[in-house]
## 1
Amino acid sequence: MNPDDVYALGRSDAETRRLIIQHQIYGPITRRFFQAAGIGTRMKVLDVGSGAGDVSLLLADLVGPRGRVVGVEMNAGILDTARARVASAGWGNVTFISGEAHEVLLDSDFDAVAGRWFLMYQPDPAATLRGLVGQVRPGGVVAFQENDFTYPPTVFPPSDLSRQLQRWTIPPPGTPGPEMQMGTKLFKAYLEAGLPAPELHVEAPAGGGTDWPGYDYVAETLRSLLPALQRATGLDPRQVGIDTLAARLRDDVTSRQAIQMLPITYGAWARKGSSASRE
Ligand SMILES: C[S@@+](CC[C@H](N)C(=O)[O-])C[C@H]1O[C@@H](n2cnc3c(N)ncnc32)[C@H](O)[C@@H]1O
């Protein structure tokens, strides 16, 4: 499968930068989620769809020097970035495997399998989960974090610009592409994968003021999505004024002492019981 068929956000350096800003915002939430899920020192953790390496770096911090992190990623280009970031952070116990998560050969003794914004790209998330559970030892942790992107970036109180931005960013129902509500469907996917009912962790980032990174994040996300939105909804990039969007959003929010809330994120975790197996 051509990776571009499933990844509407593109493959550019701008997309890699967007992933890094995104992690600046969501990283603290992801850390709290993994800690609640029981990921900690000395564990051997699999990070599927590891992207630019943000989750792997966070996991490395949680498992410490006596643990291990293995990332799997099908975009070879972004893996170079991930490897360089891990090397510059000085972690010698984080490695990456290039390939499709369904196809590469992986160990089956992981203490945990983890992923963020990965299941939304899988055609059958429950089947993918079921396969990944096979890589985890009995009693190991299965921890995935996904968003509900249909609750779009919201400004309180709203403005003409924030309402317009919501209209641009929500593709009409039925638009082909990733599962925009994967966060709300994690519970069902876990059950269908043969896992026990997962515990859920729900949080949304919010902020205001000039230094809040949300304005750049939203503008960079729209920049990455523009080609796909142009095809799906006929959105005219000239109408968006993408190069000035972050500054206009910042002015709009800060001038009114408003706040911006970003899409809600859902984390689900469960432990593999002795009966949860590859079927
Ligand atoms: C939105 S990014 C998230 C990256 C990272 N997990 C994070 O939270 O920063 C999704 C990543 O999953 C990768 N991906 C999607 N499906 C995959 C698959 N079946 N096998 C391996 N990688 C996959 C994509 O190439 C992309 O880099």
## 2
Amino acid sequence: MAMQQASTGIAERTLAIIEDLKGLEGPLLPILHGIQEEFGYVPQETLPVIADALNLSRAEVHGVVTFYHDYRSHPAGRHVLKLCQAEACQSTGSDATTARVKQLLGIDFHETTEDGSVTLEPVYCLGLCACAPSAMLDDEVIGRLDADKIDEIVAEVRA
Ligand code: FES
């Protein structure tokens, strides 16, 4: 029963977002964006509601959600750690720092640790190229990533 109420709440909030945005040209992406802002991710149960409202198939909506990695299909962890993968960071060793973070956390990009502490995501330039390789932990940008900083970040997200 509680589950059903939760789903109804999600459907209602989804419909309100759709109502606000469906007049836009190409409303699907703004609607998905609005839903992710509202819930922190795009819950599965919103897909049929969006499909019905926009006259699309569920497969089409699902395809768009999975194509754009910005949309999460599961709630994010308590922290979100973004590692820059763009050129300036690549040329200063982001491959190695990324591999170290993934190894220490035991997850790949777009995954969340089992304890729910952190979600790992790639990002493409944080405007911090002069201090590459760069990262962003929640709202805080971090430059000159090295092994020590990575250890600090991992300890912080696990605290
Ligand atoms: S390329 Fe990584 S911050 Fe610009």
## 3
Amino acid sequence: MRFSRYREIIPEFSVFCRSLYASLPTHLRVNTLKASTTEIRLRLERRGLALAPTDQTGLVLLVASLPQPGTLLEYALGLFHPQALSSVVTALAMAPTPDHLVLDLCASPGSKTSLLAQLMKNRGVVVANDSSSTRVATLTANLKRLGVTNTVVTCYSGQQFPLHGRFHRVLVDVPCSAEGTLRTGVHGTLPATIRPRPGLVVLQRALLLRAFDLLEPGGMLVYSTCTYDPQENEGAIQFLLEERPGRVKPIDLDFPHSPGLTRWQETMYDPSIQHCWRIYPHQLDTVGFFLARVARDL
Ligand SMILES: C[S@@+](CC[C@H](N)C(=O)[O-])C[C@H]1O[C@@H](n2cnc3c(N)ncnc32)[C@H](O)[C@@H]1O
């Protein structure tokens, strides 16, 4: 089985494995830059959609059976954005405020960028960067559709993002092996492999270092992946702590999760790494995720 190497680290491993047979739920994040949650919810319910709120923020609606949310008029109007609950949690962990200068280093297609702008009430400034010019076009289109006006888009290799200024918050949502997106659906089987991407771990660490270097003293970054692989997760944070004076901070949100690992196979990690979050689909029914909050001291 593809995930058997994680048997020792994923709690209730057999329950985790069973959870992969269910389809990924569709979550819609309401866009309060355009209308209130109640208005958007009523519009969608008038279309006959069965919706359930899924979190205490009131920002995410779980919709039963909506294979193509992008075909709805409300999507084109920018009233909602289809977004995994774990992706929403990641943006919330950034805790941006309307006076912040925020960098999203790997931003396309802009799900988290647009939620950051929403949390900032379209104030402050967000710099949304992605190294892929084609993906930057998608990012720009999404920001426009969602009515985001506090964001500028750049197209640098994140690990070489210019060091001209410093940010209160940096999100580094790195390219990863994406194991957390793997589900069989009710009838299918797990894809046997995700194409190996040589150099991925090296790239993730370079992006994380640059993200830290772009922080104001007293600033905070969030590092995230949608994978379970400790090398791409705790291993990256351990690397950062060895290279820079960062401190791993608790994530003060209330969603089911497991703590970061302090050991994987023969490797020990700094005890503070247990403040990181591992989001598993049998604990929170969404894409599997890892997130870490790291502060730069004053
Ligand atoms: C996990 S996706 C980001 C998802 C996005 N944060 C969101 O929530 O919509 C990773 C992104 O990193 C970008 N990327 C890959 N290598 C990069 C690099 N060296 N510098 C900046 N971005 C990079 C990819 O083009 C991709 O869009």
